[in-house]
Amino acid sequence: MPNEPEVDSKIILKLSSKQASERDEAQEALEALGPEAVDALIAVLQKEAVSYRKRRTMAYVGLAAFVVVMIVLAVLQSDNVAFITTFTSFMTFATAS
Fold first, then answer.
1. Any domain includes 4
2. I need a labelling partner for 27 at 20 to 30 A (CA). Which of 10, 51, 72, 79 fits?
3. Res. 21: pLDDT tops 90
4. Using CA atoms, how far apart are residues 44 and 60, in angstroms rounded to an integer?
5. How many domains are there within the chain?
6. Which of the two residues, 5 and 69, has the higher pLDDT score?
7. What is the tens place of the pLDDT at every residue in 32-79?
8. Distance separating alpha carbons of residues 14 and 28, to the nearest angstrom
9. Straight-line distance from the first to the last Cα atom of the chain, in angstroms, rounded to the nearest whole number
10. Is residue 58 one of the residues assigned to a domain?
């Protein structure tokens, strides 16, 4: 659409704010844009979803690399108890974050 309003991603972030006043402000801003903003809103949401997927993928790659390094170190070392202790400590920390 040629006269499609632009949706700021900050409005979407405010929708999940802990402060009711910010949520209300964001809702009013979206209502003011009207139904013509639906396509722009969908585009912003899809862009944000891609960004989150990329960050999540990078976190998984980093975790997998760490696991591989720990396994290689365990194979190369004779002290497997230290490896198991270190690995379980890290996994407990990683899953808590």
1. no
2. 51
3. yes
4. 25
5. 1
6. 69
7. 888 877 887 888 788 878 888 888 899 999 888 888 887 787 777 766
8. 11
9. 43
10. yes
Residue type, 20: A
Does residue 1 carry a pLDDT above 60?
no
**Contact status, residue 36 vs residue 5, Cβ threshold 8 Å:** yes
Judge residue 7's burial from the number of C-beta atoms within 10 Å of its C-beta, 0-12 exposed, 13-18 middle, 19 or more buried: buried
Q: HSE of 51 in the Cβ direction (CA atoms, 13 Å)?
A: 7
Residue 82 domain boundaries: 9-96
Instruction: Determine, yes or no, domain membership for 39.
Output: yes
Tell me if 2 is assigned to some domain.
Answer: no
